[in-house]
Amino acid sequence: MSEIGFDDFLKVDIRIGTVRRAAPYPEARKPAIKLWIDFGDALGERKSSAQITAHYTPEALVGRQVLAVVNFPARQIGKFMSEVLVLGVSDENGDVVLLGPERPVANGARMH
């Protein structure tokens, strides 16, 4: 893996948001959940399609704070426009575990 400079890191805008709504997305090629995430007044609500069905249900995600990259271009996932990339890491089975803060923080707070 090649190294990047600090200025490159600063180009990636990672923010905290709270999941306000979540719904199954059975039309996706791989099992996914549609998320509507509140990033506060500056960014508002953004949508994401996330392949996180192994560990999460839509109902359990509502109210959860997550980290997401908010400055990638939007991407069409089937009939759903995904506007942010929700961040997670793979567990021992390759299933995604979401990243989030250890305590509540303001929606829209930037990671640094």
Q: What report would you give on this structure?
A:
By secondary structure, the chain is mainly β. The chain has one domain: Nucleic acid-binding proteins (OB fold (Dihydrolipoamide Acetyltransferase, E2P)). It contains 3 helices and 9 strands; from the N terminus they run αββαβαββββββ. The chain has helices spanning 6-11, 40-43, 58-61; strands at residues 14-25, 32-38, 45-50, 65-69, 75-77, 80-82, 85-86, 88-90, 96-98. The two termini are 21 Å apart.
Annotate the secondary structure layout.
Layout (H helix, E strand, L loop, with lengths): L5 H6 L2 E12 L6 E7 L1 H4 L1 E6 L7 H4 L3 E5 L5 E3 L2 E3 L2 E2 L1 E3 L5 E3 L14
Features:
two-stranded antiparallel ribbon, globular, OB fold (Dihydrolipoamide Acetyltransferase, E2P), 12% helix, mainly beta, 3 helices, 5-stranded antiparallel β-sheet, 112 residues
